[in-house]
Amino acid sequence: MVTLKDISREIGLSVTQVSRALGGHADVNPDTRDRVRATADRLGYRPNAIARGLKTGRSGIIAMVVAGTRTPESNAHLFEIVMGLSAEISARGQTFVLHVAEPGADTMRLHAELYRSGSIDGFVLIGPASDDPRIARLKKLGAPFIVHGRDPAQSHAFVDIDNMAVGQVMADHLLRLGHRRIGVLNGVESEFFAVQRRRGVLAAHAAHGVAADPALMLSMPMIAPNGRRATLALLDAPQPPTAIIAGNTPLALGVYQAAAARGIRVPHDLSVLAHDDGLDMCPPDSFTPALGGTIAPLTTAWVALADHLADIIAAKDGPSHSRILDLTFRKGCSARAISVDTRGHAVP
Amino acid sequence: MVTLKDISREIGLSVTQVSRALGGHADVNPDTRDRVRATADRLGYRPNAIARGLKTGRSGIIAMVVAGTRTPESNAHLFEIVMGLSAEISARGQTFVLHVAEPGADTMRLHAELYRSGSIDGFVLIGPASDDPRIARLKKLGAPFIVHGRDPAQSHAFVDIDNMAVGQVMADHLLRLGHRRIGVLNGVESEFFAVQRRRGVLAAHAAHGVAADPALMLSMPMIAPNGRRATLALLDAPQPPTAIIAGNTPLALGVYQAAAARGIRVPHDLSVLAHDDGLDMCPPDSFTPALGGTIAPLTTAWVALADHLADIIAAKDGPSHSRILDLTFRKGCSARAISVDTRGHAVP
DNA sequence: CTGAAAGCGCTTACAG
DNA sequence: CTGAAAGCGCTTACAG
């Protein structure tokens, strides 16, 4: 390995001066600087990250701990998160550590041990639970961290989208089109984002002076078969909805499948909107008719996570280290205006 | 952060002795040892990985560099490899770094820079090409590394399966059952494993004194639609095969689909075998009839990779740092014995 | 503009 | 069985 000492010896300057020249400090003769840099390049010098880390107290390492599972189940979302985050962190010259814990391991403890070993500058947490113990632990440790998503029960830095707006925007769009019975296929409501979306839907109803029917609001893991099953149940009920809001595009796929199975046309007989995070396997424009709804590409989250975490590590203070990502709405061709009678039933 | 100095001060021993006590060296008074350890636990001491790394020249970090893609395509295989490897490396107290390169980045150079920065003990390479430049570069650097798979053009440590045996075993099984026209849906033959499998199939034919028909041996990316398309082509040809060997289970799924589309029964009219790596989305027993073929669970590869790489880093010498993983055969219910006439056509 | 010195936290010969 | 000292490679006050 080439060290500062090697360069120092090679051109007869002190290690101090070589370090400063390479560091780009102002108080170095420009000629010296260029000479040092040229020599460093020629020798293939790279600063020793470990030595630098020991001196500066920063390793440049960001870690993410994920719980391991014994059964290899392909979690496409987790994969994209890992790849996206790694790419973003690698691109800024930092190092991304993925620590897959053994099944049943105590991830709180793991975070603490990793941090105490002094080699981790900060953590990224994903999928926070309510009252997530990992968050409490990291706060107690004083470790820099940022959460993708939010734990409403604790105050912490996060990057998230406005999930209440997700529900509100889609419901509002449908209510404006005249729909009065709107089905909602929501995520599992033990998760905060799903709770917020439901609140958004209810708020939109309230704003329009429309009573929301709780029987139309269902909660489930967001995969296509569940969307299909739930939609069939809604359609077969005595008072079916005229529109459905799906929590993600796979759920919407299930909605389309169920409609097809019942000979119900989208959007003529049933309007459909869905939230799209840009990562799910079914992109909205692969739907026929093209699926409308809210859009918040998860890929923008990596940049925000890396940025804010860097600020937190550098202990920069600002108004907040959290960030709510933008939300856009895409009309698509999957929702249409209808007329309804006083009971909310469609009038041809 | 709690350091040796803190413990030293706390119990009035030298830092030297504290270090030795915690390191479990023999020449420390057992009482002292216990006292030091108790204090370390009480204070929540964790050795500083960076300081230790600087001293020992080992960081405990294993890195994997993967090429980034701009389009987030879910690569379930890569995901399992990353998760499996990370879990295995994390479990042994080492650190797994995933470096996702920017699209178009020079991964050779990246490996070199990471290694020269002194913070990486070794690398895991996956998906080696023929004459892979990354391998040449790492060899030139003298960096410890191990390859999952093989580059036959260079000598290096690797963990792989015997792909020639994969082809040989399945072809031999079918030949013994009386098949004389065996279709092969192989992977892309620019990859070494696919070349080896073809060789194995040919070797089995030679051993049985049967001429292999090159027209029956097809090469393609191993996904179900390709398997379906290739099988339809084989079945619709003037002299269709009586058996098909598929490179993986998705290809076999395509074979089953094509057979169903043509009203051809498995195994009555068509025998099918496939190689199963235990990770593909279609497990053999989810097939009807249950799919037979060779099995080599990829999950055993992580342990081997981590083991051998650790040996290489420790510069232990042994007969070889490479490993060929076990292969088993599972009969399933997808292949049956047939009688054939002299031209290789099935006789009822 | 340049250099000698200290120190980050650890490990490990070396001397007692 | 124990301790003082050196050193891993770097950065950074401090003094010239």
Would you give an account of this structure?
The structure is a homodimer of 348-residue chains. Chain A is an alpha/beta fold. Chain A folds into three domains: 4-47, 434 Repressor (Amino-terminal Domain), CATH 1.10.260.40; 61-156, Response regulator (Rossmann fold, 3-Layer(aba) Sandwich); 163-296 and 329-347, Response regulator (Rossmann fold), CATH 3.40.50. Helices cover 42% and strands 16% of the residues of chain A. In chain A, strands 2-1-3-4-5-11 form a six-stranded parallel beta sheet, with helices on both faces. Chain A has a four-stranded parallel beta sheet with strand order 7-6-8-9, with helices on both faces. In chain A, strands 10-12 form a two-stranded antiparallel sheet. In chain A, strand 8 (243-246), helix 11 and strand 9 (271-274) form a beta-alpha-beta unit. The first copy, chain A, is elongated, with a radius of gyration of 26 Å. The first copy, chain A, starts with a helix and ends with a strand. The model of chain A has no long low-confidence stretch (mean pLDDT 91). Chains A and B meet through helix 4, helix 5 and strand 2 of A and helix 4, helix 5 and strand 2 of B. Chains A, B: This is Transcriptional regulator, LacI family. Chains A, B: Residues 2-56 form the HTH lacI-type domain. Chains A, B: One of its GO terms (molecular function) is transcription cis-regulatory region binding. Chains A, B: It comes from Loktanella fryxellensis. Chains A, B: InterPro entries: HTH_LacI, LacI/GalR-like_sensor, Lambda_DNA-bd_dom_sf, Peripla_BP_I.
